[in-house]
Amino acid sequence: MNAVASDAADAAAADRLRITEIFLSLQGEARDAGWPTVFVRLTGCPLRCVYCDTAYAFHGGQWREIDTILAEVARHGVRHVCVTGGEPLAQKRCHALLRRLCDAGYAVSLETSGAIDIGAVDPRVSRVLDIKTPASGEAHRNLWQNLPLLTAHDQVKFVLCGRADYDWAVGVVREHGLAARCDVLFSPSKSEMDARELADWIVADRLPVRFQMQLHKLLWNDEPGR
Length: 226
Description:
The protein starts with a helix and ends in a 6-residue tail after the last helix. The chain has helices spanning 3-14, 66-76, 94-103, 163-175, 178-181, 195-205, 215-220, and strands at residues 16-26, 36-42, 62-65, 80-84, 107-112, 126-131, 155-160, 183-188, 210-211. Strand 8, helix 6 and strand 9 (210-211) form a beta-alpha-beta unit. The chain is built from seven helices and nine strands. The chain has a single domain (3-220), classed as Aldolase class I (TIM Barrel, Alpha-Beta Barrel), CATH 3.20.20.70. By secondary structure, the chain is an alpha/beta fold. The protein is 30% helix and 23% strand. Strands 3-1-2-4-5-6-7-8-9 form a nine-stranded mixed sheet.
């Protein structure tokens, strides 16, 4: 391959991401719950949470050019776009995708584990940071330096597996003043704890957090692409 062809190949690779799926559904979580949303699910994740419901995104996927991704997003004709995974920030070119989506006028959210630096994410993106609890098996991966970077445009999510996780999460919220910084969301892990029990704890403690359940799972269970 000559130098010109090699440079062209490198440029093409720089505009590609490995994608598991792109689909239209209702946003089931966080601030935009209920809005018709295009989900762009990137392939790959360095974490292995015990309750993970998207393990099918760990491997495989197809390389897609960012222009092609944007064209498919546009075809669905809605305003909200969620870039998710896996762990989308594990692919460095995710930043370019986020920027391009914002430039195109979409309301963009990013679902990220919080194990990777969020500092370079376009500030127009609403970052939904999933802080890993002890029962997730990945609490040691939390990058605590991310928390001071959060703004009112962002959100923090805790998926809880029981009382020990709840008490731990309450401590994190209070220690870092998260409720004064951004929206804080507490969710019950579907297979690990009763949702009503978590709701009762939040009410009893008058916590300044939002209880949430995954709307898409109530509607469609674990059906892929929904």
